[in-house]
Structure formats: C-alpha cells, structure tokens
Amino acid sequence: MCGIVGYVGKEQAAPILLDGLSRLEYRGYDSAGVAVYSGRDQGLNVHKAKGRLKVLSGLLDGGAAVEGTVGVGHTRWATHGAPSDENSHPQVSRSGKIAVVHNGIIENYGELKAFLQGQGVPFTSETDTEVVAHLVEYFQKDGADILTAVGRCLRRIEGAYALGIISADEPDRLIAVRKDSPLILGYGDGCTFLASDITAILRHTRRASYMDDGEAAVLTRDGIQCYDHLMQPIEKEICQVDWEIDAAEKGGYEHFMFKEIMEQPEALRRAVFPRIRNGEVFLEDFALSDEYIKSLRNIHIVACGSSYHVGMVGKYNLEKMLRLPVEVTLGSEFRYMDPIVDEKTLVIVISQSGETLDTMAALREARRRGASILSIVNVVGSSIARESDQVLYTWAGPEIAVATTKAYTTQLAVLDLLGLYMSRVLGSMPAEERRAVLEDFKTLPEKLEKVLSCKDGVQYYASQYFNRDSVFYIGRNVDYALGLEGSLKLKEISYVHSEAYASGELKHGTISLIEEGSLVVALGTCLRLFDKAMSNIVEVKSRGGDVLALTTESRAAEMAKTANGVIAIPDAHPMLLPLLGVAPLQLFAYYAALMRGCDIDKPRNLAKSVTVE
Ligand code: AGP
Questions:
Q1: How, if at all, do strands 31-37 and 44-50 pair?
Q2: Catalytic amino acids?
C-alpha cells in the first residue's frame, strides 16, 4: 500500500516528511517523493526518486536541502505505471502549482485523462494519480479556491483514494480527502499532520482523528477543519493514541500475515470493482483481440506454490466457462515436459512477486513455442509483468509475509474475471449465468468480512488440533484444489506435515494411514458433491479419525451431525466459494503456527520470492 505524510507548521517540513515516510517503509514500496512549498519564488519544491527512501533522503541531505514548512510526502506501491521517477508521487499539475499524493485507485482515470488531453493538458506519467492534479487545476480556471476545486474534482473521480493536496497559491493549507483508503489527521502545537498510518506521525503527536469515507479536511498551523461529503463543516473526535510505535508498525497487528489476511476484503474490492462495469467485465488496456481469443485451442496455466494452487482452482472454473482444455503445470516442470503449447495456446502465468525464476523460465519456454503470455501479477513492473504480452495486476498492495494470503485471493478473483470476460467473447456461457456470477462477485468483500469476523471459531479449532503431527486435507473438484492451498499454508508456517488429497482417492491407498486421532480437514463447499463429502467423512470417522469440516452456512447443520467440528462460510455462487473458503484455511494455519511458537512472517528455509531454480 502507498504511504502518505503531510505537515503544516513552523518547523522545516522535509525532515518531518522523510522521517514519517521511513516509518511507513514496512508497508512495502518502490519509490518515494516529497513536495514542499519553498516560498513565492521557488513555489512547490518537488523531489521524487525510484528505489529506497534513502535514495531520496540522500538527494535532499536528509531534508535539509529543501526549505519550507508545508509539504506532503509519499511512498509508492505501483499499481498504474511501473516504478520510475516520473511515476513517483507527488504528481504535479501543468502549472506546477498543485501537488498531489494518492493511495488507492482512480477507477475512471482513463476517461478523465482523455478529457484533459482533449483540453490540451500534457501528461508526464502513466499514473492514475496525475489526473487528480490536472483536474483540480482545471476546476480552478474560474478562480475557485483550492478546496472548492477539490470538491468539484471529487464529483468526477470514481474509485478508492486517500489524497493529500497542496497549492502554491494557498501555501498555508493542506487539503486531505478520504474514500476507501485510510487517512489520519494529527494535532500538534502550532502544527497539524496528515498520515495514511498513525506510525508516521506518532513521534510528533498522539492526538489524532480518523477520517471517514467521503470526508475532506483543511489542515493549517492553527488547526484542522473537516467537511462531510457535501462539503459541510463537521467536528471530528480527537482521540489519544496510546500505541507504542513498534506495535503500530503492522497497523496494530502482531504479524504481517494476519494483517494481510484481514486486508483481503479491501484487496478484493481493489482487484474486482474497477473491472466490473454495467454488468460486464472490463479489463483495462486489454490487448488480446476477440479474434485471437476465438482462435484459441487450449489454455495452459503455469505457476509455483500457492500461485499454482490458484491455477488448480481456476482450471475448474475456466473449463466450465470456456469449454476449452485448461492445463495447469508447475513452473519447475513446464520446460522439461515438452508441453503441447503453440500459437493457439494462451499461457497464463500467475505470480505474486513476478520474479519467481521457475515461472519466468516457463514463460520464456512458452514464448519460444509461439504462445501468447498473459500474466496475473501483484508487483507492478516486475520481470514477469515486463515479459508478458498482457498483464492483469491484482492490486493487492505489498504482501510482506512469506506465506501468501491476499495475493492468492486476488489472483483467483482476477483469473475468474478473465474467464468471465473470455466467455462473453466466445459465447461459451449463458449471459444470465455470467451476470449472476458478476452480481455475486460484488457481494464477496462483505461476505469475506463475515468469514473473517468468525476468526475466533477457527482459533478454537486450531487450539484443539495444533499439536497434531500430520493433517490431511481432503476434497473433491474445487475443494481438492482448495485443499492444496490449505495444506501448504499449514506446512509452511507451522512446520506440521500435511497432504491434500482428492477424497475419492483415499480408498486407493492413503486411507491405510487413517487411524485413531488422525486429523482430516474435509472440504465440502462444492455442494453438488456434498453427499460424497459426507460419505468420505464417515469413511474417516469409522477409522477413528477426527474431522474438521468446511462447508457453507446452508449445509453446516447437516455436516455437524458427522464431523467433529464445522467451519461455515456464507453461501455464494459455486465458482466463487473458493474465494471465501480459503480464508478459514489461512486462519487455521496462522493460529496453529502461533500456538506452536513459529516465526510466522519469516518461516524457516523460505523466501518471499524464489529467484533461484
Ligand atoms: C506461498 O505461501 C509461498 N510463499 C510460495 O508457495 C509462493 O506462492 C511461490 O513461491 C510462488 O511465488 P510467486 O507467486 O511470487 O511466483
């Protein structure tokens, strides 16, 4: 996620901004920048640089090289436009008099950019944020003050945004706007602060207000005036923050993994909502033509680890939607298997980091064989993204924990959206079925929030079972694919041995391992196979095994008649249930590892990005 810091006061702003940004580095970023008002002659002094914050700080001599007591700072996690100096924030208006820092996504930036270019406005970056700087200036053309112009701009932009805006024409005020991305206001003596996370300003003040969606604020040396979505003045409660700075590092969570599990509803909103418009899927800058899609003979998904598990779930959904054969292959296996891949194959490469060498090697082999490459990636501008013909970013924000969670969920969501898009082109799925899935897609973040709100129930089951030395995850169809991810999550952070098994395969050998006290996590969210799931549970129970079942709310009571424990997720379209079902499995692994005293964010022997073969 991007980081925002703002300051209005009597001290030099640049050192305060740089220090605040340094306390947001844990959020992950790829570039940084500051804008400070340095007086009538210099106006806005803007400095920004790709890379680590220390690059920028070195350029500015720790901030001493920039004069001025009003400014904004930003650490950028790229979504629109690769990491570069030009794409770093602050983004500046044509006149150079307005500087904007932004966290979130301007969903309709394309049309606004076209409108502004039609007005002769030149753009210097690939970012969505630059549109805001030019649009605010556009709305000042009748002499409107900065707050009025910002209000007019907010009526035109759509999406998620936390904005910090300063103007050389009104240098004693800083404008803040919040919608779907957090913003905090800080109150000091003769100064005020803006931050995307309390961590950035905690050493200056513990008096803070938390902006709500749709609100704006004007920060000055004398205080802060807040406004509601109608630009009517409102009073905000000022809280006393008693966090210790290091606790706030992870937004108050004990581990990045837990923070990222809890961020999944917001990550889903960012990945999905901008891509559903007027009841159809809208894929930005999509270069694969309808003719090409209609020419396809097969699809090959290539990935590693959890990204491979996304492909395993995606296979079921894509084949159902597209009626095309979908192969899913491990990156490390692909180039050694003489795959059936040619110019009539779409190779979908899935990778959170975009740097996994096994996956990159498979990408290059697929290209050598004539395939087109579409990648689903989280890190903007990463190697796999740069070598693909088409990239669909997950916009999940930085994922710090080694064990992936929100990236898995958003990768799967984007893969489903791709399938829905292609099904429209191919006419391979009834329109009403596609619309039903898309309608349900929009309810997912809320349903996922409900799943996460039941985390205590999962924690209870983890407390029952964390000491088991082996766990089976069984399921049929997508539940088997989901079990692969549940099993890997448990293994990689709790070091408990685990296997995922197709339920129907148990009787062909593995069931010999089931004995008194064996723990089996039985996934039964695929309701058309529910009876089969139930019979497999009986099979395990009759051999003395303990069964923790996962199913939907509508079938939980029935499942509870047989299983030792049941975790229920809200009912949803069958294709979307894995997006809900994975969350309890993530939480189960997290709590089991917690109770086993494991290093959750940095598990032994593992790296966040595996750049070796
Ligand atoms: C998942 O929790 C693991 N960290 C690992 O399996 C990971 O999914 C795999 O290394 C692939 O990484 P990528 O998605 O960045 O390519």
A1: antiparallel
A2: 2, 608
